[in-house]
Amino acid sequence: MKLLLVHQNSPGQYREIVHWLAAQGEHELVFLTQRNDTPPIDGVRVVQYESHHKIEKGAYALSKFWEEAAGNGYGAAVAAKQLAKEGFHPDLIVGHTGWGELTFLKQVWADVPIIGYFEYFYLAEGGLVGFDPDETVSEDCRFMMQARNVNNYVNLETVDVAMTPTQWQRDTFSKGFHEKMYVCHDGIRTERLSENPDASVYLRRLDRHVTKEDEIITFISRNMEPARGFHVFMRALPIIQKARPNARVILVGGNEVSYGAPSKHPNGFRGEMSDEVGHLIDWDRVHFVGKVPYLRLLDIIRISTCHTYLTKPFVLSWSLLESMGLGATIVASDTAPVREAITHGETGLLVDFFDHEALAEQIIDVLADPEKHEHLGPAARQHILENYDFETVCLPEHIGQMNRLLPRDKQIKIDTTLVS
Description:
Oligomer: single chain
Distance between the termini: 25 Å
Largest sheet: 7 strands, parallel
Number of strands: 15
CATH architecture of the largest domain: 3-Layer(aba) Sandwich
Mean pLDDT: 95
Strand order of the largest sheet: 3-2-1-4-5-6-7
Number of domains: 2
Strand content: 15-25%
């Protein structure tokens, strides 16, 4: 089977499945990407493409998102045409629709089926925009959000099958998408998320390792920003520290912006929160460790007494599901995407996103009486095993969807004993 994978930042959400396919040693795999430093994967040929067009400053606001997507799409098509000249004709194309890369691939290979990953439908209500009453929403917001969805609508016609990782994400898309769409997460490698009672994490400021014996609160986000509740967490910290004088906080992530508008503060949202509540915080017990290697991230979660995950209505972070897979005791925001993964009192604890006092009280309760909450971690791991495990749940579904589009002699073999 010849498979073309497409993602501007490879491997992206295809990290697990591309490694699995490559390990089979039976397929010709080509990954089309803008990234010029893709980590090498044995058995996978990486082909870089460049956008054919970049938008200029002052571009018309209602069309600039499509303009950029069209430039990406045509750039990907140019690279695809070169692959076709070299004799590569895929049996199937699997790729992310978000940046427009799939848009023109049917013009290169009209007969090749495409499965498109639909990650986010831009909403004027019910998503990131308008969720926080303190944020100003432009009166033109509805027009801007609909304009950003042009790429989604165009790619709905491009693909033969659409997929999205969670039910909440599926429900944000208009009903016209649902007939083509199946719901299945990328998959969590639960076999890598084993307990390790000897796990430890070195903290430079302390000049020692901390372990499960310490009282550790963890917070993980790609970047420290409002979309992931960083401001709410920081407002809760003074209350937590006052009640728990031995507690230490480890925050993992950068100080840039992934989602939403950037901070106007010269030191980003960290600077904003330092100005607001910094005088109330014991900084000696707060450890910003930046972006860390994956294995170190797992150990940080393993030693956590209480893991905190906050998000506005947006794409669910892998870190939440991996924390559940590690059996962490989690306090999270009571927002729609999180409620799909966590049931309050059974697999975690939920609090109102905006109520930093309630967040603090719930974290304090976990720290004060961890035995009362010790059932949450094992139940969370079991939930991940049953609903998000890569090999037994997600892989069979994704391969099944791919095989429905492939001729019998090209279908991907999978051990049926893995299917739950």
